Amino acid sequence: MTEQGERSACVIDELRGLFLFDGLTDAQLTALCADGWVQTFPAGQLCREGDPARYFYVLLDGEIALSKRSGDRDVDIWRAAEPGVYCGAWSAFLRDPDLTYENSATVTRPSRLLVLDAMTLGDFLVTEFPMASHLLVGHSHGRFHAHRILGPHDRLVALGQLTAGLTHELNNPAAAAVRAAHGLRTQIAAMRHRRAELPENALPPEAMSSLVELQDRVAEAAGKPKDLTSVEKSDLEEALGRWLEARGVDDAWEHAATFAEAGLDIDWMERISASRCCDGPTSLSAVIRWLAGTAETELLLTEITDATKRISTLVDQAKRYSQLDRAPFDVADVHELLDSTLTMFSHRLGDAVTVVRDYDLGLPDLPCYAAELNQVWTHLIANALDALAGQPAGVLTIRTRHEQHMARVEVCDTGGGIPDDLLTRVFDPFFTTKPFGEGTGLGLDIAARIVDRHRGSLWAESTPGDTRFITSLPLTVEPARP
């Protein structure tokens, strides 16, 4: 707690001009002054969350900042310098001796405050404003019960939305890996039967060596990434099918599809045909069937490898999003944070939304609370996707720029825009343009508070078809610690 400064008597003329006491009679102000006093406090903590709520404080001069405990640290939630703002035992009307402070309060500079004893203030409110006190008590109990019931529900809804996106993205590569593993098992079983068709007993050692070499080269080629477009692949499959069919190879078009997928062209077929292990149509057909099986096996193995890598990447991005592996304050690549957040929204993007990443790759790492910045990107991207909902085609642009000592991040959408009369209110708490029950109106307010804590700024610019939420964050100044 901050050290106590000098005390002085309360003057009702000073209270009369404060919005908090507007409408009180001189008799009521005199009663308050009789039980209170004015005190000057140096900068420091005024009261701590969870401690017994002894006093109610009203600011006369100076500045008060409130913070709320979250996990293992305090988060700034409010700051004001307007005379008449208050903090401390603001639930004094409950007249509960076990009441505790709901927030921690700090005076950021030397400040003069009116100090009222909590129990005395509670008696005053109940005596002078009995109906209002009953309403406040009912509201307080209702808020407590609503928070107790809806709080876990809201957290589960938020968790469910993120989980839906992650599980949707994980399902695709996982299903691909399962399909490929099943196909691989079937292919290996078929190759055991195909081996009996090879003219091994009739092949001289040098021809058998040629077949083994061909198999190794086909496997190597099939395992490499391909740069063919879908049109090029279709043309190659057509050419291979005609080549194999002209030489009497059984199941020519089926093998052509496999070889085209593996990127093996007509030159490969000519090389196989000219090898020592293919001395006739019968042996060519058997060798082609064997090598097609080899290529398909490698393709399936590549599909399993790619799918499992994709799963690992998604898990890593989810970890980066939650920042479970980081200290609370660290330097971070802002592009990694943005990409991990976009991953969480993959299930909402679909074919109707085009995502444009316009990144300044020269942007240095950002000193920040990474998990909190991810919440900023979450709110801004969710807001943009809501603006694009229902449109046949929309563009979500994430743009970063390095401007002197600041990092600039823009989240842009091509939605209908925000009217001028609403643009100045979008960051107000509880303000929302969504239908009743679909939005709390707190997302942008939370984002603005987090950015402010990072000594940055957040604002919006909007015209029809181009709405931008712009965040500017310092690259050289450490964010304020709680």
Any overview of this molecule?
The chain contains 14 helices and 16 strands. It has 482 residues and is an alpha+beta fold. The longest helix has 65 residues, at 130-194. α4 packs antiparallel against α9. It has helices spanning 12-16, 26-35, 118-128, 130-194, 205-222, 230-246, 252-262, 266-274, 281-322, 334-344, 346-349, 370-388, 420-423, 443-453; strands at 7-8, 36-41, 44-47, 55-61, 64-70, 73-80, 86-88, 104-107, 111-117, 330-332, 353-358, 366-368, 394-403, 406-413, 457-463, 466-474. The strands form four sheets. It has a five-stranded antiparallel β-sheet. It has a five-stranded mixed β-sheet with strand order 11-13-14-16-15. Strands 3-8-5-6 form a four-stranded antiparallel β-sheet, with no helix packed on it. β5 and β6 form a beta hairpin. The chain has three domains: 7-128, Jelly Rolls; 172-307, no CATH class; 324-474, Heat Shock Protein 90.
What labels describe this entry?
elongated, alpha+beta, 482 residues, 5-stranded mixed β-sheet, 16 strands, Heat Shock Protein 90, single chain, Jelly Rolls, 20% strand, 14 helices, 5-stranded antiparallel β-sheet
Q: How are the SSEs ordered, and which strands pair?
A:
Elements: E1 7-8, H1 12-16, H2 26-35, E2 36-41, E3 44-47, E4 55-61, E5 64-70, E6 73-80, E7 86-88, E8 104-107, E9 111-117, H3 118-128, H4 130-194, H5 205-222, H6 230-246, H7 252-262, H8 266-274, H9 281-322, E10 330-332, H10 334-344, H11 346-349, E11 353-358, E12 366-368, H12 370-388, E13 394-403, E14 406-413, H13 420-423, H14 443-453, E15 457-463, E16 466-474
Parallel strand pairs: 11-13
Antiparallel strand pairs: 1-2, 2-9, 3-8, 4-7, 4-9, 5-6, 5-8, 10-12, 13-14, 14-16, 15-16
